[in-house]
Amino acid sequence: MVAQLVALCIDAGDPPGLARFWAGVLGRELAGDPRDGIVLLPDDDTGFRIRCLPSQEKKTGQNQIHFDLTSTSPDHQRETVDRVLALGGRHIDIGQRPEEGHVVLTDPEGNELCVIEPGNRFLADCGFIGALSCDGTREAGCFWSQALGWPLVWDQDEETAIRSPHGGPKITWGGPPVAPKTGRNRLHFDLAPPAHGDQQAEVDRLTSLGATRIGAGPCEAGGVEMADPDGNEFCVLTPR
């Protein structure tokens, strides 16, 4: 029995505004959140929620996680870029080369995202959200594979990727060099123990895999904040 990926959480100064942006980009429905945030509901049975949660902390560096959105044609890529910009996003230069086909943007709060060029075989059958792309080590990728029970679908040259057996987006780790953390991550995962499972038993299991408990944090009431082998925060929620 393994943990379930419940949500990708995004800390936001304006959760309703950021949620409306992402709902417009992704075409997802909005719902309320018990932590005074806003939830974007999954659009299929392989998806996870996206939770926009209130935070007063400012963004201090490039995020460790960003969305890779796929496109089916040059027109589709341009349409997605135009939609992001119309909803309040902007272009950003993070050192990408002119010959690279993807377009780098940010949402209204400065969180990076990429609109991938058509014909990308690695993300060919992953859906519109092709991947959650992480700046991280192979150790982190292997940890999350075991934590979620998602097999490694790429493991080469220190780069790793996992994917749910049910399909959906990949989660990828780009390998070294890994940029140093500059504060608490604005994007992090919420996990739930296995159905009818025990939260403490799941915390113990994740600890045995290389996670660390980092004490009280901004998790949902009763949640346990932990960090993966790269120091990236995540929450283990109470059983539902």
Automatic annotation (TrEMBL):
Domain Glyoxalase-like: start-end pairs: 8-116, 132-237
Pfam families named among the record's database cross-references: Glyoxalase_6 (PF18029)
Protein known as: VOC family protein
InterPro entries assigned: Glyas_Bleomycin-R_OHBP_Dase, Glyoxalase_6
Highest taxon above the source species: Bacteria
